[in-house]
Design goal:
Helix content: 55-70%
Strand content: 5-15%
Largest sheet: 5 strands, antiparallel
Pfam family, one: SpoIIE
Protein name: Stage II sporulation protein E
Shape: elongated
Keywords: Hydrolase, Membrane, Transmembrane, Transmembrane helix
Enzyme class: hydrolase
Structural class: alpha+beta
Number of helices: 27
Number of strands: 16
Distance between the termini: 37 Å
Strand order of the largest sheet: 7-16-15-12-13
Organism: Metabacillus rhizolycopersici
Radius of gyration: 45 Å
Length: 826
């Protein structure tokens, strides 16, 4: 009872924890979205960055950050420019009145020079860096001239340094500000963009110089926190890069921070290398880097202060929510989060594509149903309506002006209608002239009987032509419905293929690797894409095999034994040098294979034959053999038969069912030309997995299957293609076995022998007398026998295709593996 209660309580506990976790996630998402909205849309992020950049001074007197930031904000977010300007001035006041005056003068000068430059240059984006360079140089020299009456070379040099840095920082801020301020920006960040963001953040942290508490400096804490964050997210390369950039800019702000560049770079490298240990590993990397660089740079005097700063940075790093690190990681190439985001994007594109294909499939299916439902009518009502329309046209031309119209069609409507209907049916069947009684009664009833009979006989021909035309239209619609349905099925299958994801086969990959390594074969990599019976797809990388054929001789037989089905090498790319790797693809072997032989001759020994043939690999474990005989001989007959074969090949390979494919070809051939040029088609489709075969014969001669001493005749009765618009395809099924010979031929072979009354018996006897099983030899012998009966003359186009059905036995026998002998992988 306690076990049952425990089992019942566990799901309840899990459910409660799950709800709590979801509630926390929802709260954090709402809080982060509101915080983001508050900072970005209200412009507080520009106030914060502007305030710190207003305090940022490098080389003790250079202010290169303020005006580039203001200019970039003014160009991109003009409505927030006033907040950024006031924040810069406020930040400068916290340093000194002189700094705030310089910033104010720079902003005013920026507006003046920008206004002047707008008369000559229209592209604001390209002119902004030059405007800022000119403004900074002018304001710096002007301020120095106002405060000092004489200027030295050093003053001009520092003005040039400040304006040059401002020019470069303007270009950097133009790239980095949109990446930080945008709520949703592009998913992938380049290394250059990451460096631009880090320069901006390091510049902002420069504004923290001088903010201390008991010798703990704020810029040290936040710079190490940033290095920890990026080393944990992006690894050693990103961590060391961020450390170098941040340390360099901070060292420019305070020469005493020069050793911190080494500390941050080394800590970023170690933290990235140890990130496999999660946050704790990255934090240990920072501690090791702090101790080593501090002892080397400053000795043990300030070691405790430096360690305390690192510990505070580690504490901030440890309390950073995983959602923040995960969101940042989505934008840095090489991270798992970035890969998952890309896969999710690809999956979304795939789902959208599959959905579109599904929609097209449904459209074609709906169109097919609309064409098909056209025929779902009551035939009796249709016939009655046709009869009424026919009789109304008769009465309009005969009874309309008759003086007895009222008597016939008002007083005796049923009798008159019955007479007219019976006469119509009798005339259709050509029996009215022999029906003396009906004729006599009608003459007694109608005063214009002769005229009515003549009119009915004339209208019957138009009526029958109209009926035939309607029937042809209906059959065309039915064919279109079948074609649309076939296309719908093909697109539905395509959608399923798109939706099907690659399955993970980690366990099976390990089992295969262990089995092969226990046998002594070294495997570098195993990738399993499919373990479906009959559709196995495995790829391997193995060391250089020196052309000894290990894959075909050893690995493929072992995989056959492990997977309990025949596996063969589909593709092999051997390495060109001893230290390389060979890449091999393995796949399922078909149970049967087909070997074909063809004998072909044109009428009179010419070069152009009216017969065409093809062996088609349909790509789904099926193999097709087709012969088409164009009507007559020569170029036109060859064109017709060749077009039939090409159309058949394209349509079958698209996945459309055989019957629909043949009806489609028939409609194309019948509509393409008005000439009486037709073609036959003899098609055999063999399933290479089970041997089941379909034979579709359209006006073609019989085929024969030789199974030992037994000869099986395969025959169906269909008219040639293109001769009529409506026909039903008879499909004959036969299960072929290994060792069978399938013999298909055109009428030039079957009806070729002279002085033969029964072609079937003659062909069966000749096939039975052939002792060889080689398909090419069989085809040549049959052709030779037929030509011999004609005294060496070729009086018609002749084609015979012989297919031998064989077991598809791998070249090398399976090697049993004892460990996995009784256990199939999967």
């Amino acid at each position: 009872m306690e076990k049952v209660e425990r089992r019942l309580m566990e799901p309840i506990a899990d459910l409660g924890m799950g709800k709590t976790h979801q509630a926390v996630n929802r709260f954090f998402q709402r809080f982060s979205s509101r915080l983001q909205l508050f900072f970005l849309h209200k412009g507080l992020v520009y106030v914060l960055i502007g305030f710190l950049l207003g305090r940022a001074i490098i080389l003790s007197e250079v202010l290169p950050f303020a005006l580039p930031f203001f200019g970039a904000v003014f160009l991109m977010k003009r409505d927030k420019a006033h907040l950024a300007g006031l924040a810069l001035i406020a930040g400068g006041i916290t340093v000194s009145i002189e700094v705030s005056i310089i910033i104010t003068m720079s902003i005013i000068g920026f507006f003046i020079i920008k206004r002047l430059s707008s008369y000559f240059l229209k592209d604001q984006l390209k002119t902004l860096p030059f405007v800022i360079l000119t403004t900074v140089a002018t304001v710096r020299i002007g301020y120095l001239f106002m405060t000092n009456s004489t200027l030295t070379i050093y003053d001009y040099m520092m003005a040039g340094v400040e304006s040059g840095l401002s020019f470069i920082l303007t270009l950097i801020f133009l790239q980095s500000i949109p990446l930080i301020s945008a709520r949703r920006y592009k998913q992938t960040l380049k290394i250059e963009e990451i460096i631009c963001i880090m320069i901006l953040l390091a510049s902002v942290m420069t504004g923290l110089v001088g903010v201390t508490y008991q010798n703990l400096q704020a810029e040290h804490i936040f710079s190490r926190y940033m290095v920890l964050l990026f080393a944990f997210i992006g690894g050693s390369s990103i961590g060391s890069t961020v450390g170098v950039v941040t340390g360099l800019i901070l060292s420019l702000a305070n020469v005493g921070n020069l050793y911190h560049m080494s500390l941050l770079a080394f800590s970023g490298l170690l933290g990235g290398l140890l990130r496999e240990g999660q946050k704790l590993g990255t934090a240990i990397g920072l501690l090791i880097g702090t101790v080593l660089i501090s002892l080397y740079g400053q000795g043990s005097a300030d070691l405790m202060t430096t360690l305390l700063e690192s510990m505070i940075a580690i504490l901030l790093f440890l309390i950073t929510p995983k959602a923040i690190t995960g969101r940042l990681a989505k934008h840095i190439p090489g991270t798992n989060e970035y890969t998952q985001e890309q896969q999710q994007y690809v999956r979304k594109i795939r789902d959208v594509t599959a959905h579109r294909v599904d929609q097209f499939s449904q459209v074609f299916h709906a169109l097919s149903e609309s064409f098909a439902t056209f025929y779902d009518k009551d035939e009796a009502d249709d016939d009655q309506r046709e009869t009424d329309l026919f009789l109304s046209s008769i009465t309009e031309s005969t009874c309309q002006h008759c003086f007895k119209k009222e008597k016939c069609w008002v007083d005796n409507f049923d009798t008159t209608y019955d007479y007219m209907e019976r006469i119509m049916h009798e005339t259709k069947q050509h029996t009215y002239q022999n029906n003396v009684k009906l004729k006599k009664d009608f003459h007694r009833h109608c005063s214009k009987a002769n005229k009515v009979e003549e009119t009915i006989e004339e209208e019957i021909n138009y009526f029958q032509a109209n009926q035939k035309l309607k029937k042809e239209v209906q059959e065309s619609r039915r064919l279109v419905a079948e074609q649309l349905l076939g296309v719908s099925h093909v697109m539905e299958d395509l959608s399923k293929e798109i939706k099907r994801e690659q399955e993970n086969h980690f366990v099976q990959e390990e089992q295969i690797r262990d089995a092969l390594q226990n046998f002594g074969i070294e495997i570098v990599n195993v990738d399993i894409y499919s373990l479906e019976q009959g559709n196995v797809d495995i790829e391997m990388s193995i060391p250089f095999c020196n052309g000894h054929g290990e894959c075909e001789k050893i690995i493929a037989p072992m995989l056959s034994d492990i997977l309990e089905e025949s596996i063969i090498v589909k593709n092999e790319e051997c390495a060109n040098y001893p230290n390389g790797y060979c890449h091999v693809s393995f796949g399922s072997a078909k149970k049967f294979r087909i070997k074909t032989g063809v004998a072909h001759a044109a009428k009179g020994g010419g070069l152009v034959s009216g017969d065409s043939y093809s062996m088609i690999d349909l790509g789904v474990g099926k193999f097709a053999v087709a012969i088409s005989d164009g009507m007559g001989n020569g170029v036109r007959a060859h064109f017709e038969s060749n077009e039939t074969i090409k159309l058949l090949q394209k349509i079958l390979q698209s996945g459309i069912e055989e019957k629909v494919a043949i009806k489609t070809i028939n409609s194309i051939l019948s509509l393409r030309t008005t000439d009486e040029i037709f073609s036959t088609l003899d098609l055999a489709i063999v399933d290479l997995q089970d041997g089941n075969s379909k034979f579709l014969k359209i006006g073609s001669t019989p085929s024969f299957v030789k199974r030992g001493d037994k000869i099986i005749k395969i025959q169906a009765s269909n008219l040639p293609m293109g001769i009529i618009d409506e026909f039903d395809v008879d499909v004959v099924g036969e299960r072929l076995k290994a060792g069978d010979l399938l013999i298909m031929m055109s009428d030039g072979i079957f009806e070729g022998p002279r002085h033969v009354e029964n072609y079937d018996l003659w062909m069966k006897r000749k096939i039975g007398e052939i002792k060889t099983v080689d398909p090419q030899e069989v085809a040549d012998l049959i052709m030779e026998e037929v030509i011999r009966t004609r005294s060496g003359k070729i009086e018609d186009d002749m084609t015979v295709v012989v297919s031998a059905i064989e077991h598809n036995t791998p070249k090398w026998a399976s090697i049993p593996v004892t460990k996995y002998e009784s256990k199939k992988i999967g």
